[in-house]
Every structure is written in C-alpha cells, then in structure tokens.
Amino acid sequence: MKKPKVAFICVHNSCRSQMAEALGKLYGGDVFESYSAGTETKPQINQDAVRIIKELYNIDMNETQKSKLLSDIPDVDIVIKMGCNVVCPSLPASHIEDWGLEDPTGKEDKAFIDAAKMIEYKVKELVERIKNNNL
Fold it and tell me: Which stretch is the leader sequence (predicted)?
C-alpha cells in the first residue's frame, strides 16, 4: 500500500507547519509522506522554530526544509491546518482537519517548546489513526 501524503498548511509556511513537517518525517516517515506549505512564503523559516526543533529533536530544518507555496507540493491525501486566526489556506484532500495551534512567532521560547510538544503529540496521534484506518 502506498503511503498517504500529508500536508501541514498555514498562511506563511514558516513556523508551525514547518515544525509539523519535520516532526511528521521523524515520527510518521514509515506511515506517511510529510509536506508543508502556505499561501505566502517567507525568505527563511522562523529561526526560533529552527533553534527549538534542533534543541529538542536534533533536526536542522534549515538544512532539510524551506518555505513553500501550496502549488509547490504534490497532490495530497490528508490536509492538516495548523490553526489560523485569519482565512486558512485550503487544498483538496480526502481528509481535512484543523489542529487550531497558537502561533508562537514573536513569543518566548516556552511558546515554541509548547507548540513543538503539541505538534509531536498530534503527529504521533495522526500516525496511529492512519495505521488504524481511523480518519
């Protein structure tokens, strides 16, 4: 069976969706393909997010990822919206859900750590739901 493609999306594809892509690859790589994208891009990924993911998970997102537009990724099976206070981007998919995560941008490290830990929890939960055909 081919692995489903999961897109983690938000507006700027610079912080939460990037963390989710990295943690999706780490914890879900054997179950799904992990992508992230947004309706706008930033010149670089949020460097606080990069630092926290490096400290917590030893993943250097600057090496493996960049900010991407929705049109830059392949067609996906599952869309995970990170949570938007504005209009959330959308992609066609057989399953769509919104994780409603607070954006830690501009906040202290604890907000980034909390976001990373919540994303880790939700990614692991998503892995189990995909394995059990429970979406």
Answer: none
What are the pLDDT digits (tens) for 70-92?
Answer: 999 999 999 999 987 666 777 88
Tokens 């990295």: give the residue: 22
Beta strands in the chain (DSSP E): 5-10, 33-38, 78-81, 95-98
Q: Please state the pTM of the whole predicted model.
A: 0.95
If you search the block for the tokens 């493996």, which residue do you land on?
Answer: 64
The residue ranking higher by pLDDT, 47 or 90, is 47
Q: How far apart are CA 54 and CA 49, in angstroms?
A: 8
Q: Which residues of 56-85 are buried (b: 16+ CB within 10 A; e: fewer)?
A: ebebebeeebbbbebeebeebbbbbbbebe
User: What's 100's domain CATH number?
Assistant: 3.40.50.2300
**Token digits of residue 54:** 């490096």
How many angstroms separate the Cα of 47 from the Cα of each of 34, 97, 106, 108? Answer: 20, 27, 11, 13
